[in-house]
Amino acid sequence: MLLNTYEPWKFAFSAETDFDNIEKDSYGIIGVPFDSTTSYHSGSRLGPIVVREASYGFENYNINFKTSLDCIFYDFGDVNVVPGNCEATCNIVEDTVNELFDLGIKPITIGGEHSASIGVIKALSEKYEKLTVVHLDAHRDLAFDFIGEKYSHATVMRRAHEFGVDLVQIGIRSSSIEEEDFVKSTYNIQTFKNKDVHRHMDAVEYYLTTVDTPIYLSIDMDVLDPAIAPSVGNPTPGGLFISEIEDLIRSLSFKNVVGMDVVETATDRLGENTAVTAAKIIYDFLSLI
Amino acid sequence: MLLNTYEPWKFAFSAETDFDNIEKDSYGIIGVPFDSTTSYHSGSRLGPIVVREASYGFENYNINFKTSLDCIFYDFGDVNVVPGNCEATCNIVEDTVNELFDLGIKPITIGGEHSASIGVIKALSEKYEKLTVVHLDAHRDLAFDFIGEKYSHATVMRRAHEFGVDLVQIGIRSSSIEEEDFVKSTYNIQTFKNKDVHRHMDAVEYYLTTVDTPIYLSIDMDVLDPAIAPSVGNPTPGGLFISEIEDLIRSLSFKNVVGMDVVETATDRLGENTAVTAAKIIYDFLSLI
Amino acid sequence: MLLNTYEPWKFAFSAETDFDNIEKDSYGIIGVPFDSTTSYHSGSRLGPIVVREASYGFENYNINFKTSLDCIFYDFGDVNVVPGNCEATCNIVEDTVNELFDLGIKPITIGGEHSASIGVIKALSEKYEKLTVVHLDAHRDLAFDFIGEKYSHATVMRRAHEFGVDLVQIGIRSSSIEEEDFVKSTYNIQTFKNKDVHRHMDAVEYYLTTVDTPIYLSIDMDVLDPAIAPSVGNPTPGGLFISEIEDLIRSLSFKNVVGMDVVETATDRLGENTAVTAAKIIYDFLSLI
Amino acid sequence: MLLNTYEPWKFAFSAETDFDNIEKDSYGIIGVPFDSTTSYHSGSRLGPIVVREASYGFENYNINFKTSLDCIFYDFGDVNVVPGNCEATCNIVEDTVNELFDLGIKPITIGGEHSASIGVIKALSEKYEKLTVVHLDAHRDLAFDFIGEKYSHATVMRRAHEFGVDLVQIGIRSSSIEEEDFVKSTYNIQTFKNKDVHRHMDAVEYYLTTVDTPIYLSIDMDVLDPAIAPSVGNPTPGGLFISEIEDLIRSLSFKNVVGMDVVETATDRLGENTAVTAAKIIYDFLSLI
Amino acid sequence: MLLNTYEPWKFAFSAETDFDNIEKDSYGIIGVPFDSTTSYHSGSRLGPIVVREASYGFENYNINFKTSLDCIFYDFGDVNVVPGNCEATCNIVEDTVNELFDLGIKPITIGGEHSASIGVIKALSEKYEKLTVVHLDAHRDLAFDFIGEKYSHATVMRRAHEFGVDLVQIGIRSSSIEEEDFVKSTYNIQTFKNKDVHRHMDAVEYYLTTVDTPIYLSIDMDVLDPAIAPSVGNPTPGGLFISEIEDLIRSLSFKNVVGMDVVETATDRLGENTAVTAAKIIYDFLSLI
Amino acid sequence: MLLNTYEPWKFAFSAETDFDNIEKDSYGIIGVPFDSTTSYHSGSRLGPIVVREASYGFENYNINFKTSLDCIFYDFGDVNVVPGNCEATCNIVEDTVNELFDLGIKPITIGGEHSASIGVIKALSEKYEKLTVVHLDAHRDLAFDFIGEKYSHATVMRRAHEFGVDLVQIGIRSSSIEEEDFVKSTYNIQTFKNKDVHRHMDAVEYYLTTVDTPIYLSIDMDVLDPAIAPSVGNPTPGGLFISEIEDLIRSLSFKNVVGMDVVETATDRLGENTAVTAAKIIYDFLSLI
Ligand SMILES: [Mn+2]
Ligand SMILES: [Mn+2]
Ligand SMILES: [Mn+2]
Ligand SMILES: [Mn+2]
Ligand SMILES: [Mn+2]
Ligand SMILES: [Mn+2]
Ligand SMILES: [Mn+2]
Ligand SMILES: [Mn+2]
Ligand SMILES: [Mn+2]
Ligand SMILES: [Mn+2]
Ligand SMILES: [Mn+2]
Ligand SMILES: [Mn+2]
């Protein structure tokens, strides 16, 4: 860059990417502009742009947590997706996360639809002996397939479960009878519905303290109430408030979080509140670690 | 329909309409694309389309109430309205509801402005000896006339009161001094203001249990907070949350609800949250009955 | 339907669908709400809804052509698509068109992305000994594959060409060097670029009169100037005017058009001009035949 | 007003309204925020606001006509309309125009739907022995009634014709068979369709020079192409260009124009191009007189 | 105005402005359509229009506070701003407020960006021996300069502090480390963060009762949660609810409030909820005094 | 970047920026996200983002000009602007262009408001003995000052003229009387109004061939018709068509163009047509050189 210029396409506060001097054990952002399997409204492919743009609205100092965003992290740009081929796109994401891992970088993925998480979780589940996915979503995403498709935003956590991870699902308020039956048939899926969070946040936070494996955090923006995050692929009334997300992020900041994603932001309007909120969640996470 | 097609203009999960085999004592949806008397912003004529479109975002299983939407109901399309003539439109709605009644069908009306309820309540008030209208709204809609007009979104409940129904008004936070005086001058209008609902939901629910007449449920989407339902004819800050609506719907599901409407959704954007929320309210109601 | 109701999303002027009395040799509308392979902006899955809604803005009498829309045609609703699987969706479309053919119905398809045409052209190319596809588009859509995908909005006319059809491409103003080379390597692809249409409409119309095979008409809305049709998957400056489209439709009305589609309308706003224009094109076509 | 303030919604360049010193034989703006009889999309009630706001984008000097907007004119605000009652609203408009006439003011009306013109033309047709209405519109608006309603945006020019005026309809491209029959059955309705204007502007301008009565100019914004004026109650592809409107306005500036209106601007977005264009038309008219 | 017209550009319920008979000790509205120093998204220059337009959605009777809006107040229109020169604009605002003061009018300013308050507070701080600014905002706005600029939306309260006022900052949830240090270094800035308001409203209200100087109330709309007020220059998740604003306004209504502003409404859409809420805050304030 | 990633906001087809190996005599893009002096609607600060995003809709091969975009060019990101201080921002732009010049790079600037050109033209006018600015705009931008401000979008070409450049103004259709007088008082400002371009493109093109100095090309997007480019700071009906822009760009491609800018794109919506058209203009320019 020149003396007076900056790269507006990078998440605010991110560091230059000098491959010879990358800080080990830091975080790296990738975008996955993919929305091909979306079942209701498409558009989350623009998530990586609008979320990055919204990141420029925050201060270095995070008054809420009384801390500064002073960790080193990188923005590696967007993955080359294959429109219409979810499996191929998942494989590219997986390869990219492996590359990042080899550089000592933990992935922060901006979606794009929730299928962006499949490749990430696949890669990480092979790196760590045991992995717990903390999954914030209005939906379980536990379908075995969706109209025959195994790679889909609706099957993410079923695939993750097949990779051997434990699941903690938080904010759930929509599910099929098949998904409910599947949850009952397994032992390692813990559920906190939206009203559980509203009424018993202490229980949720306590449960998270008991997780002793590395954690992958996956946040579908539809976990938030549509009042706050209206532009998502499947808006679902009755979601979490931002203060509840803040509490969960803070709880997790004391754990070994080896990667995270914020997905399903689906708007073409810069400055829209879903994008602002997605950016804030990443900003809060980076402020706390 | 052909083997592989469906009718996207019908509410999700609705049954085919085979007039020779209509299930008695079931529900039937009609749309009323009318907004001629709107006093602030028009546009609710598009409500029937956007609400139906939004109905495709829900699962058959309703995890919130642990029940499935397995009742038989029908979508009979939209009423032919007369732009600029509210009384004529009300008469058409009334005739249609009478037709439905003769088929053994209880009406679910998607507005359109609130005047859509006048014809429905008129028809039903003549079918049932006594009728209680449970009216969720930011406004009382009790004006005798509106700038001289007796058929108006602002006079709906005054007309209903003249038809002899009892009124329970819930969520009220805007009213004229004339409306307040009228309420005081009557004996059969019960009021729960927005803050009454926030603070004393138990009292509201208890009151509803005491209603022993058939109930007609009329929901003006502006009863919800504009954060959740911004696209209404008269946005009014300080409304109900979706969980409060859920509680009220559940309370009413134990009663004899002989018809309902969800009105004043006024947006031209498919997937907008007012439409999603209106669809969810109908979906919840159908899941519970 | 009841006495006073109608089905609000069916294309205006369409007939009831009574399977026992379907008029042979008439037209039938299907929607294909699919946009999974879109490479720039998604959203055309909403095309079938917004185009039907816009059809209610026209008169039965078409003053432009001094004729009335008095042909019998049907609206069969939308095809069940498979989000994320273009090939599966194409197969469903193909099956549906075969069903229609067996009923004596020529298909009018509302997209959705341009891949909706693949199944239609496949079915029709097998019904007719020789078929010419008149293809109005800013793009050639002649890629062999798109990032490895053979079923894609970008490969539609390459697949069609493989099915053995002749191609007349009108309005072209974007193309890859590979597509140009392919066109040169074949004998049966005729090209009229956007400026050819502006300057030499007579030549285009004359060419169309020489086509003596059955014709399939495929209209990508991006063939129009984005001033008129801004909401498409790949907006491309410099397109056709509506009067040019009218001239082309009229020329084709004297030919044996065995099916048509209007695709790539990508907006979530009812009444948006891309939708209005797409509806008008179908309306004009139906008025003329 | 204070030293440093101005009234932000008054039409730009309008004079203060000092009732004791009103300039005789000048023009006065009124708004009619009414859209109750709209048959397709409502929203033109916001026209008076958005058109006035857009008037602040122009220079005092009009380079196109090499003249300055130096005539005195007034902005009298908006008429009190009766939502849902077109006849009552027309009567109020008529009364207001009579008031203006008594002050020596010729009306410039900003709609609102086209029914705003009924009251104006009624009033003026009684003031002048003979009146010619030059009517720019995509539609004839000559229905005897619209679903039984005699006061409607669709019947404006039929009512005007009953008041005894001559009609010149320019830009027509949509009409019913009944309207066509009515035109044929009369002697004093001259028609120039959209393509007549495109091809034979000289003939249109010549015809206007032959009108020797006072002229009332009524401009439905849908006469323009939807590319330029997308936000109207009935968008109709294939309309006039702005240069054609300029030519018509200039031709009329040599005649005795005793009033004008610009109606059917239907958007809630400040700065939208329909509003800008409507403001420009009034600005051009005022620059030329 | 004529018999049947009103001025739509004035705040609803405002009185005519007859300079010879202005009611002393009343309130007067001015708009400041200025947004030149905005750091994230511009657009608040349209605030004065959209907030006034939204004021027409309220009843004269305020049921929430059981009072009527019966005080006399005036709408003096908008200040002439200097795009790109904040200091010059502040000086014009200051002059205007001085003019108002001489007329016995307390200012109610509709922004525009928050810098609109600088001139107002400067003028008032010179009129009153001691002044307390109650500042509702997500941000402290206490920067000494913003990229070198001393007149900026980000420095408003630093300038106010230099004018000698006491500050009560309510709703704060974003701040720089320099601002935090400055607050610590002073004695007369009291802070209630967003969560303080949620949890300890009693303490906030009690504190306000202890203020014994005249009060100036400055409300940055971003103090509200973006769910309610999404269209602001710097949307910041986690803000106040409307009931909290109501409580604060009521508390202040018992004090000597010598002026107020509502700033940072940044939308071009009439009827948008940020505008509605801004209008309601002014409406509530005027109802209570 | 990693193996599978790219930088999503860099202009499509731009080269990596390796400072040690920058190709001499090539072009470099900078964005200027500044809109503080805008007089009508703000928002052009988002131009650099939305124009870059739109650049991903084009093919490497440019079928219109039968050439490929194979020149090497760079995207250097955005300049650090000073909100509210136009002069300071101009100075930063000037410094940046000087830096680029020292690297052998000719600037392509994406605005932001038109004042972005001031610094560029200042820098270049000092590098070249004689410079001609070819200025495409609806407005002359020749005001000596704008409400006292010398650095403003409305004064750009007056400042340029002071720097000693010759001016060719193309597409003009709005101007003040002072600007007209100024043009008459000088010898080196050539004007082609919008209708001159429509009717006498040959004359315009011929004139451009006679320019024998280096040329700087400055394109205010409002030169285009608002049908094509609706989202600009000052929408002005009656502008150029895209084919006219194409012709002008091609004419200039035979000249020595030492820099260009495309300014005043003012939208927050990704994929909006103003942004697409601005990107296409840069794309065409880069294809032709
Ligand atoms: Mn979800
Ligand atoms: Mn999910
Ligand atoms: Mn209401
Ligand atoms: Mn109501
Ligand atoms: Mn195309
Ligand atoms: Mn195509
Ligand atoms: Mn019309
Ligand atoms: Mn009309
Ligand atoms: Mn703030
Ligand atoms: Mn502030
Ligand atoms: Mn300009
Ligand atoms: Mn300019």
TrEMBL record, chains A, B, C, D, E, F:
Mn(2+) binds at residues 114, 137, 139, 141, 220, 222. The keyword Hydrolase applies. The keyword Aminoacyl-tRNA synthetase does not apply. Signal peptide: none annotated. It holds the Pfam family Arginase. NCBIfam families: agmatinase. This is Arginase/agmatinase family protein. It comes from Methanobrevibacter millerae. The lineage of its organism: Archaea, Methanobacteriati, Methanobacteriota, Methanomada group, Methanobacteria.
